[in-house]
Amino acid sequence: MATISLELWGPAWLSRGVDWGEGAVIVDDFAEFVGVSMPGLLRYGHALTGNPHDAADLVQSVLEKIGSRWSSVAHKTGDPLAYTRRAMANAHISRWRRTRRENLVADIPDTVVTRERYSFEDEPLWQALRDLPPRQRAVIVLRYYEGLSESEIAHTLGVSAGTVKSQASKAMATLRTKLATTVEGRYES
């Protein structure tokens, strides 16, 4: 796999001010698209996956696929950023489905695998968000983290506006329940 270096996409690319919103500007240059979109894609990937390393892998794998057929993506989709976000959500859901399968082993491993912890991992909201199903998490992240409207989220994920509303409603109900339980538990102890 090719490595995407953030050094290549410095402030010069970001200062161009290309609008990837509703009236998306089609850019023939894939490098320019990556330069403008990379920070937002990494944030979105981080919110989807739960850590920056998996987010970088997700963004890289999706951009590799899109980059190989950039001209058709840029000219046929109308909004390459929405297409990329949808591809990221789909890739994350596929990866999640593959990795959640149970692996049976004959012996229990002797060593415990430790990983680096991030300061925000212990935050109740982050833990509750991580426990949401992938589609609900994608809807919440796009709505409240990226600030997209319901129609933009529907377009990005390739679902109807009603599905976005129902997924957001279910996610918010789950988050409220989990956070209320967490807050009550903190005050009772």
Written overview of the protein:
This protein is an all-alpha fold and 189 residues long. 65% of the residues lie in helices and 0% in strands. The protein has nine helices and no strands. The radius of gyration is 19 Å and the shape is globular.
Q: Secondary-structure blueprint of this entry?
A:
Elements: H1 11-14, H2 30-49, H3 52-67, H4 70-76, H5 80-99, H6 124-130, H7 134-145, H8 150-157, H9 161-188
Helix pairs in contact: 2-3, 2-5, 3-5, 5-8, 6-9, 7-9, 8-9
Give me some keywords for this one:
globular, disordered N terminus, 2 domains, Arc Repressor Mutant, subunit A, 189 residues, mainly alpha
User: Helix segment count?
Assistant: 9
Provide the number of structural domains: 2
Number of strands: 0
Distance between the termini: 49 Å
* Spatial extent as radius of gyration: 19 Å
Characterize this entry briefly.
With 189 residues, this protein is an all-alpha fold. It has two domains: 10-100; 122-189, Arc Repressor Mutant, subunit A (Orthogonal Bundle), CATH 1.10.10.10.
